[in-house]
Design goal:
- It is a single chain.
- The model has no long low-confidence stretch (mean pLDDT 77).
- The chain contains two helices and seven strands.
- Helix content is 26%, strand content 31%.
- With 134 residues, it is of the alpha+beta class.
Length: 134
């Protein structure tokens, strides 16, 4: 779930029902080695019990559908991140849109970072050319 969730973050969870869940929410689903925090990209409420499809922000493919237990599913409410204290997970709709198109956030951030560094270098070069030398 990087960059939304980082190693060492402490998750504050609240149990919610399937009726309250929405695409973009980060929930904890059972995985092969315990629970995994992934983002909901699709909810099917037409079946009983409802099923959700989740996907990690940096993963290419979604997880298999998971049934929501009748007592609810743990949803990430806040994240405790070091000295910053509590942080609310953001960019819900954007992450869902990117997840549905199988565009990973890491690749997108890498491209945007390269473009930003290139633009900064060009701007710095232009400014240095404009400064008269004594």
């Amino acid at each position: 779930m990087y960059p939304t969730l980082r190693p060492g973050d402490t998750l504050i969870l609240g149990t919610v029902s399937a009726a309250v869940c929405a695409p973009g929410d980060i929930v904890c689903v059972p995985g092969t080695q315990g629970f995994i925090a992934h983002r909901i990209i699709r909810i099917d409420r037409s079946v009983s019990p409802p099923t959700i499809v989740t996907k990690g922000d940096n993963l290419t493919y979604p997880d298999p559908p998971t049934t929501v237990p009748p007592n609810g599913i743990p949803r990430v409410i806040m994240v405790s991140r070091g000295a910053r204290g509590l942080v609310r997970p953001r960019f819900r709709r954007l992450m869902v849109a990117l997840s549905r198109r199988n565009v990973t956030v890491g690749i997108l951030q890498g491209r945007l970072g390269k473009i930003a560094r290139w633009m900064y270098g060009r701007l710095l070069a232009l400014l240095l050319q404009e400064i008269p030398k004594p």
